[in-house]
Amino acid sequence: MFQNEVLVSIARKYNKSVAQVILRWLTQRGVVVIPKSVHKERIIENFNIFDFELGQEDMERIATLDTKKSLFLSHNDPETVRWLSNVKFDI
C-alpha cells in the first residue's frame, strides 16, 4: 500500500508521506483513525495531517483503489479463520 503509485503521487503533490495521505483521506471521510507506531518520528508524522486537505479529485482517486479485499487477512479464507480461532489472548 505504501508503494502504490497513486498514493505516492498524491503524497508528493502535498509534500506529505503516503501514511499521512491515507490518514487524511480517512479523516476527511469522517472515519475515526487510531494510528499506531512505536517510533517518535512516525507518531509526530501521524498527527501532522491537519495542515492540509485533499482535493475532491484526489479523494476520488484514492477511493478507486478499493478492491473490496483485505490487504492483511481474508476473513473468507477457511485457513485464516481457523488460524484466527486458535489465537490465544493473555487477558
UniProtKB/TrEMBL annotation:
GO terms for molecular function: oxidoreductase activity, acting on the CH-OH group of donors, NAD or NADP as acceptor. Keywords: NADP, Oxidoreductase. Residues 4-65 form the NADP-dependent oxidoreductase domain. SUPFAM superfamilies: NAD(P)-linked oxidoreductase. InterPro entries: AKR, Aldo/ket_reductase_CS, NAD(P)_OxRdtase_dom_sf, NADP_OxRdtase_dom. Pfam families: Aldo_ket_red. Belongs to the aldo/keto reductase family. This is Aldo/keto reductase family protein. It comes from Desulforamulus putei DSM 12395. The lineage of its organism: Bacteria, Bacillati, Bacillota, Clostridia, Eubacteriales.
